[in-house]
Amino acid sequence: MLKELVQMLVKDQGARVALQGGQLQLAGISDVEHRALIDVLKNGNKNEPMKANIWY
């Protein structure tokens, strides 16, 4: 199900924008999953690993 959802969001820019703007709610996924999905959509197709910035 999640795979189909991601494919739909990749194809339909309007749905992606609505999700990022909080106008589209997704039933069946947790708040953490929702935030992770939005984070992935914001970062696009960057093939970079997550980086941690550590300040001393």
Structural write-up:
The chain is mainly alpha-helical and 56 residues long. The chain has one domain (2-43). The protein is 55% helix and 0% strand. The chain is built from three helices and no strands. Helix 1 packs across helix 2. The chain is globular. The relative contact order is 0.13. The model has no long low-confidence stretch (mean pLDDT 76).
Mean pLDDT: 76
Report Rg: 13 Å
Q: Which structural class do the helices and strands define? A: mainly alpha
Sum up the overall morphology in one term.
globular
Q: How many helices does DSSP assign?
A: 3
Distance between the termini: 43 Å
What is the makeup of the main sheet?
A: none
**What's the domain count?**
1
The proportion of residues in beta strands is under 5%
- Order of secondary-structure elements: HHH
What's the helical proportion of residues?
Answer: 55-70%
User: Which stretches are low in confidence, meaning pLDDT under 50 for 5 or more residues running?
Assistant: none
Topology, number of strands = 0
Which helices and strands occur, and which strands form pairs?
Layout: H1 2-11, H2 13-20, H3 31-43
Helix pairs in contact: 1-2
Record keyword descriptors for this entry.
56 residues, mainly alpha, 0% strand
